[in-house]
Amino acid sequence: MTAALVWSAASAFYDDLPLAGRGLVLAEQPWSGAYTVGREVWVLAQTTQFARPGWRYDDPASGRLPLGGSYVTLRAPVGGRAGADWSTVVETTQAAGPQVLRLRAGSGLRGRRLHEWCTDLTSGDPAGWFVHEPDPGRVAGTTAVRLAPGQLCTLTTTTGQHRGGARSPAPGPMPMPFTASTAGPTGSEPPLFFDVNGAFDLAPCAGGAAGSCITQEVTRRPIRWSTAGDGLPTTLVGDPTWDGDYTVSASVLLQDAPWVELLGRVDGARGAGVSGYALRLSANGTWRLATEAVVRPSGGTLRSTAGKTADEGGGAAVDRVLAAGRIPAAAGWHRLALRMSGPRLAVLIDGRTLAQVADAAHTDGQIGLRVGGWARAQFATLSVVPTEPGPRMLPDTGLTATASSARFEQDYDVDGRAERVLDGRPSTLWSSAGPVRRPRW
Predict the structure, then answer these.
(1) Helix (H) or strand (E) holding 340
(2) CB 154 within 8 A of CB 147
(3) How far apart are alpha carbons 369 and 338 in whole angstroms?
C-alpha cells in the first residue's frame, strides 16, 4: 500500500452526530477555536516525516516479526557517495511479547547511525506520541532495537523530524443567550449550522419581511447513497452540552412546505430521526408538540452515547405527541417558541401560551429546524435564552476517573477507558471489559 485515505482531515461535526470524532484533527468547537491533534496524525507522521514522494519500498527489507508485527523499509531513489537514505517503519500492534529487531545497511544504502522515533499506540497521552527516543546503539555495523508490544517506531538515517509547537485555545461551552446570524451573502450557510439533510442557506426574506432569512432550498428528494440518509430536511445548531433549561424561538414562513418544526433539547440525529422535542406548525393551522426518539429497525432506543462500532447512523423516528391544537391560519409569518424548564414544557405561538405539559424524555442538547417534505420554507430571528440559571460546572483541573475494567480495542477504534469521561464530549462512553457477572464501577 502506498497511500492512505483519511476522512475527514478535520472532524468538525457536532458531537451528537454518528460520524463525529473521526478525523486527524478534532475541531468541534468553532466558537472557542479549541482543537485536538489526534493520535492518527502521528501514526501517519511515522511514515510521512521519514520519506518523500519518489521513495520506494525495499521488499527484501520488509517482512513480519516472529512474535507478531511487521516492518517495511523505504529508500531514497538516489544517494550520494555515502549511499541513499532509508527508513524502516515497525509496528507491534499484535505482538505477543517484546522482541529485538536488528538492522544493517545493505548495498547502496547509507550506513550511518540511526535515529529512532516512536508512538505508543496503547497510550491516550499525547506525550507518548511521536517521541524522539535515544539513538539505538550499534555493534559491528548492526543496530539492535528492542520493541515492546503496541508500538509504532521508525528507524531512519534522516534528520529534521519534529512536532509542531502550536497550542489550542481552551475549550469552553457555546455562549447562551444565542441568536443565529443571518449576516452573509446570499447562498452562504448561516454560521455554526450543520445540515443533516437538505440545504439551509441565506436568502432574501419573503412574505414582506426585510433582510436575509435561513431558507431550506432543496425541493426534490435526493438520491440516497446509504440507507441511513432518508431523513427530512433538518439543520442543527448549538452546543450539544447545553443545559436544557432554555427557550428556543423562531419566526417561520411555510411557503411551499406542508409543515415546519422547531427542535429543542436535541441529543442525537441518526438516519431518519432526530432525538429531542419537536414543535410543529402545519399549513392548515394545526400544531403539535412531540417527543421523538430514534430506534433501530430491530428495536431498541439509540442514544447519543451509542458506541460508534454499533451505530453508523441508521435508525427510524418514533414520535409521541404531548400536546396538539389549531390556530386560525398558518399563512404568513408566525412566531414559534418552546419554553423548557426541567420537565415543564410550554408551547407558545405568536406570543400566546397554548399548552403546558410535563415530560422528562430529553434533558439537554441542541436546537434545530426541520421542514416537512422537500419544499421551501424560511426561518428568521432564531434565538435561545435560558429559563433557569445554568449549572455551575466543576473545573476539570485535578479530576481523575478510574474504573474496575474498561474495553479498549485499538484495532477497532473502541476506546472505553475511564479517563475519557473527562474529555468534555457527550458521546464518550465508558465500557467495561468482558461479560458483566458482577457490578462494575
Answers:
(1) strand 334-341
(2) no
(3) 12
- Residue 288: phi and psi, rounded to 5, are -155, 155
| Helix (H) or strand (E) run with residue 34 in it | strand 34-37
Topology of the domain comprising 178-386: Jelly Rolls (2.60.120)
Q: Would you identify the CATH topology of the domain 34-156?
A: TIM Barrel (3.20.20)
| Per-residue pLDDT, 308 | 34
Instruction: Summarize the chain as % helix, strand, coil (round to 5).
Output: 5, 40, 55
Establish whether the linkage from the previous residue to 32 is cis, with ω within 30° of 0: no
φ/ψ bin of 198: left (φ > 0), alpha (ψ from -120 to 50), beta (otherwise): left
Residue 246: all three cell numbers together = 432554555
Query: H helices then E strands: how many in the chain?
Result: 1, 31
Place of cell 407558545: 348
Residues 6 or more apart whose CB falls under 8 angstroms from that of 224 comprise 230
The predicted structure's pLDDT at residue 314: 59
Q: Where are the domains of the chain?
A: 34-156, 178-386, 399-441
Q: What are 115-127's pLDDT values in tens digits?
A: 999 999 988 788 9
On average, the pLDDT of the chain sits at: 88
Which of 15-29, 144-158, 302-316 shows the lowest mean pLDDT across its residues?
Answer: 302-316
Q: Are 240 and 14 in contact (CB under 8 A)?
A: yes
Any idea what the Cα angle at residue 89 is, between residues 9 and 123, rounded to 5°? 60
> For 312-371, how does the pLDDT look when each residue is reduced to its tens digit (9 = 90+)?
455 677 889 999 999 987 789 999 999 999 999 999 999 999 999 999 999 999 999 999
User: What count of Cα atoms within 13 Å lies in the side-chain half-sphere of residue 23?
Assistant: 18
